[in-house]
Amino acid sequence: MHKFILCIVLLMVFHVSLTENYLGLSYRKMRYQMKQTRLTTSLIALCLFFGFNSSAQSISPRELVNLRKMEDSLIVSADSMFSAFIPDMRIAYSERFARQLVHALKIPNSYRYPFDTLRKMINIVYADDNSFRIFNWEIIPGNIPNRYYAALQLPQEKLKLIGLNDYTQQIGNGVEDSVLSGGKWYGALIYRVKSTTVKGQKIYNLFGRNTSGPVSDKKVIDPMYFTKTGVTFGAPIFGIASRNNPQKRVNRFVLEYKKGVSVSMNWSEERQMIVFDKLVSIANDPNRRYTYVPSGVYDGLIWDNEIWNYQHDLIDIKILEDGEAPTE
């Protein structure tokens, strides 16, 4: 808006200066000056058009009121789906919440509404280039594995929403190798989206956590890219051989570890790479992933030549003995 006002002021000053110079001009020069004035007037009209067009895309007072009301309703439903006294009812509440969310997002310009209160209860994560945002939550229903829900919203005035279906149980042991489309997705609680580009194709790396396993948890980096029919998950952009098929690269990076253990994995702005805990088996058995715990050392993935390359032993953390003082 400030740029729009400045554009108008400068053009009007230019218009006035041209008008003041009409006196004393020859007929030919005056006709040229009048053409310049008409050009200036046309530019002012263009400024007005783009200025009003930009303003029309912001949230109107009425839309804002409706979105706030819908957010209040969503918060009530979210409380029920997370803490219903009967755990088996939580999935039903979650489905009701999802319907309410779609209804709220159908309000024009809803992408501009941040849902600041709701995001304290569910994850609302934006891509690092703001090309979409993800509404994402986890349900703990009781005697069945955790369920994950997610929907991608694109930044358009009219709603463009892509729903995702948790396909965790169907994938089984193929977490690293599977490629999913048609709304299928390896369910996770997403906490970051980092974009990369491969042969001109934008690929979004979704950082997530899945705790639906009975004896182990997982941290995942799931590559996602847009297609003509929706989105596809999984791509061979990691310099890591598949355990199931060593001749091929994994399509998804997975850290599996002992259930309930805290494991870190995130993007480091300082190092310009992904940094995560190096894991070791407390049973000295590398095949039993459910025995893995952090070793006190960090590994990483660095993006180079359109691939995530594995980097070992980035940061060695000294574990002090009882009574030993740090030297730095």
Describe this structure in words.
There is one protein chain. The chain is α+β, with helices and mostly antiparallel strands and 328 residues long. Among the domains are: 2-56; 166-316, no CATH class. The chain is 28% helix and 32% strand. It has five helices and 14 strands. It has a five-stranded mixed sheet, covered by helices on one side. Strands 6, 7, 8, 9 and 10 form a five-stranded antiparallel sheet that branches. Strands 11-12-13-14 form a four-stranded antiparallel sheet, with no helix packed on it. Helix 1 runs antiparallel to helix 2 and helix 3 runs antiparallel to helix 4. It is globular and about 60 Å long. The relative contact order is 0.07.
* Helical run tally: 5
Helix content: 25-40%
Q: What would you call the structural class? A: alpha+beta
The spatial strand order of the largest sheet comes to 1-2-3-4-5
Strand coverage percent: 25-35%
Write the layout of secondary structure elements.
Elements: H1 2-20, H2 27-56, H3 61-83, H4 90-105, E1 123-126, E2 133-139, E3 147-153, E4 161-166, H5 168-171, E5 184-185, E6 189-198, E7 201-210, E8 216-227, E9 230-233, E10 253-258, E11 265-268, E12 273-281, E13 292-304, E14 307-316
Parallel strand pairs: 4-5
Antiparallel strand pairs: 1-2, 2-3, 3-4, 6-7, 7-8, 8-9, 8-10, 11-12, 12-13, 13-14
Helix pairs in contact: 1-2, 3-4
